[in-house]
Request: fold
Amino acid sequence: MSKEPKENIKNQETIARFDNVSFEWDVNKPILDGVSFTIRRGMKFALMGQNGAGKSTIFGLISGLYKPESGIINIVNGVSIASANQIIQRNELDLTVREFFAKCFKNKVYDLDPKIDDVLEVVNLKGHTKVHDRIIKTFSGGQQARLLLASALIQDPDLLLLDEPTNNLDKAGIAHLTNFLVNYKKTVLVISHDAEFLNAFTEGVLYLDVYTKKIEQYVGNYFNVVRDITARVEKENMKNAQLQKEIQAKKEQANVFAYKGGRLRLVAKRMREKAEELEEEIVDVRKEDKSIRPFVIPAQPDLIGEILKISSFTTMKNGKIAKRKCNISLNKGHHLLLQGPNGIGKTTLLERLASGHAEGEKVAEGIRIGYYRQDFSTLNFDDTVYQSLSQAMLEGGERLNEEHMRSVAAGFLITGEFIRTKIDDLSEGQKGLVAFARLVLQKPGLLILDEPTNHINFRHLPIIAEALDKYKGAMILVSHVPEFVKQIRIDEILDLEK
Reply:
């Protein structure tokens, strides 16, 4: 990675530039192919692209975590960069808050505790006693999302890289973050599938095309950019349809002339050559514009009577535990929405329900539970996708049927080398698609979903919502995305705060 002279930093508008950059994980997995784009001081852009396209890899290249195969990445000398990743790494979960923030700095910081207090105030994560010595894994998913953001902000960077910063955040958390970014004076590049959030502060889009492996740079309102991209794809599809008609006509003419023989065979040959030329003009529709296929999560057969009874639950607020009573009964086809702010105990309750060991709840005997966790910890990260889906099919009470399994996988864009990839090597969005494919194969009687929109491409969300809406077993849903919840039939709401 090259650096530019420090004396030019105040006068130079461009603070980072990719010049013809290529990168690949291995010979069979290219990510970028001759990519060029610029990042200018003060710009606030979204980085878009299909799950697994390589958006997080671009962040790694900018921050120097990875090196390009070819091309040059110019970062102005003196420009500081900090990243807020999608998730806290598994090897960081046992750290204290102080140890977690200390890792953000190359050198020891002697006034770290006051800096931590100040940055937790910024991300609206305050009021916790002895917070500096608290273990990271004891925080809720939403609170961990705020810690990730704070770990970047505490470095006061010139270039802030945010990877899915709204995942797990409640409505108040998203509003707080949005307001902060609207007023932020430095440069921001954000990966997010939350359209409303992006439109509040971004000025354009860097669009990573998973087919061409290149970046397209758009300036303007986020929704306008999405419309421009959609219009371009529709135009490409119309052109393809016209070319296909011409190709078919040339091939039919070639067949007629070839059948007549003689000199007309030469005409037939020219017709075929023309058809081949037209085929080369066909534009490949971009893979990132493909959505998953509509799907159904089959419910466990022969569901009768009460599936789940909840008579009490435990909440956590400002470090204080409270036990509350309720009367929730879930039968076949009954959908429950669990609500409450970050840190109140929604994920903890779901974990206990899924384990069957929650005090004050009872799952009917023989009920199969399908559990979608926001951190994907129900997946064995050492398994390949093939092994994970095979196991799910066996859990669903079926003998291994590879043809059916591959058909389900293909519906979630899991094809080719993807199915032989280890879970640990997938992007977070791809892990989410594998988790949904597993639910289809498991055929649960009780479906528990903790933030199922996290990391998922926005094109897939209406299809997922429709599948959940039509699910015929008992379901418990936690989601902080109102637009998603509105598309799903909800029979009852349990607000842990109220």
